[in-house]
């Protein structure tokens, strides 16, 4: 699990006990080592989407880059990823 996803899931949990429980649960998911090529690809993806009129955040494109380089599927209910998938080679997990 990319660290920014872990941060987003934990952000906003006010009750310390709930925070600790989710934090401990999420620790079961390893965090990939990210390198220069991940950030470069994220910037390239941002530029490519922007040239097609699709806006997105740096964090979203970092998630896309990490997933693509590792051949992972992206699981998200955020519809922005469906827009990115129209012009980027990313795989989205389709829940049934």
Tell me the layout of helices and strands:
Layout: H1 3-10, H2 16-26, H3 36-51, H4 58-70, E1 73-74, H5 80-87, E2 91-92
Key words describing this protein structure:
single chain, 96 residues, 2 domains, 4% strand, globular, two-stranded parallel sheet, 5 helices, 2 strands, Rossmann fold, 58% helix, mainly alpha
Q: How would you explain this protein's 3D organization?
A:
With 96 residues, the protein is mainly alpha-helical. Helix content is 58%, strand content 4%. It has helices spanning 3-10, 16-26, 36-51, 58-70, 80-87; strands at 73-74, 91-92. Strands 1-2 form a two-stranded parallel sheet. The protein starts with a helix and ends with a strand. The model has no long low-confidence stretch (mean pLDDT 96).
Query: Ranges with pLDDT <50 over ≥5 residues?
Result: none
Number of domains: 2
> Major beta sheet, specifics?
2 strands, parallel
Work out the radius of gyration: 14 Å
Q: So how many helices?
A: 5
Tell how many strands the DSSP assignment holds. 2
Brief write-up:
By secondary structure, this protein is mainly α. The protein has helices at 3-10, 16-26, 36-51, 58-70, 80-87, and strands at 73-74, 91-92.
